[in-house]
Amino acid sequence: MSNVLNVSSAIPGYDNNIKNNPYTTVSPDLRSYTDPSRVAGPAGDNDAKGGQGAGPGLNYDSNYETFTQMLNASPQLTKVFARMLFGGLAGLVEAGMGDAFAGDIAKYMESLKMTEGEATELLKSQAEGSVRYRGAFFGLLRQVMNETSSIELKTRILDFVRRYGDMASGKHIQNSIQENLSDIERHMLSPDREQLKGMAGRLVYPAGPEGTGENVRMLKNEILPFLSRYIRKTHDMGRVRDAISLLAYNTARYENGDSQGVSHAFKKLLGYQAFARRFKGVDPDALMEGLAKMDFDREAGKNERVQNFLNVLQRGLSGEAGLENKQAFEDVLQALLLNESVYMPLLHLMAPMELEGKQLFSELWIDPDAEDTGNVLARDRKIRLLVKFDIKDVGYFDLVLFYQDGKADVQLFYPEKLASSRKMIETGVGAILAGNSIEARSLSLDVSRKPLQLQEVFPKLLERRNSVNVRV
User: Fold this and answer.
1) Residue 399's pLDDT is what?
2) What are the structural domain ranges in the chain?
């Protein structure tokens, strides 16, 4: 009887086949090619750099490089959203969508009707909500950062700001922790699932900045150790382990945002003369009390109009608008997430509205420090602005503005069908600038051939390509 358990792979070149072809390797080095067109690259260069090349290899793109590639490849939000706004959403209602979805669309469309003053307030509230670190207090922090040469002081300021940011995101982090625990419960084995559910039920929701400590103690001392033992016991390296990793990360942020930690970080800053000179007389306890009472959701600009939009987007992503329309909602979500990425150095605003009976959608990208000279005076700041807007039955516009000390350079690209109205457009733009006390250093108008890319207007987006590569 043959030994069937003693299995081995035949060594190439040593088998008993009649046609005995020896195994050879192909050298990647250049060997006297007479046809230069056959040379694909340097000799011995096997790696597929940057994701290029036919074979597998290391991806040399950094995370930021990948972000810029996604930015180029992603659909333009102005185009996608305008198409939905100008007929897509209304068409869904007429097509007989569910009553709940139709009601959400109707509420959202009604909320877009506004006056010129309301449109201005919409943009202001978005801008204020996008900048969490605003006001006199953080203005002084920025001044200290710009004035000091102490790396240690700058590091402590950034630590305080990070703790404050986690405290401000406390409600969001708590919701994320709840979702992480629910996801883990769904994929755990039955006996352990019930035990986890009992421990999770002892967490307090919602807990303000001062009630964080007990929840953190429960998570760190009981829930996470229990989940660690579960993984060792079951060797579950799938979705449960991934969800536990997210839970550990959110727990660390949750603990970092504890009000006592924020207060302690601020008291440490007062030990530096450069900091204490600016914040003389500030009571740390009173400051923390004021921050604890702040409604961060309201400060972030959350309102009924935003909630109506989120309801419509959520239903569209779940497929209630039909599978043929799901991609459009996914494109909107992808564009929104990219514009809010941690790698995006620009302030992004969006303004869908119906103004004086005209539907329009506008996006704004703002670089408040287009040429950072380290000067903190507002009049010396150079601001670069890109505005994209699409007006129903009129067309698509791109506006680029470079502003400093009451003067501006303006470029406007307008639809080709308005070429005969160039003079009227130029007069109107000049009047708008003058009405806002802005002197036009230069004003250039041209027909729009293709939508402007962000990288064309903001070279800053490409400056980080030489950063340290952290992606494998």
Assistant:
1) 93
2) 136-298
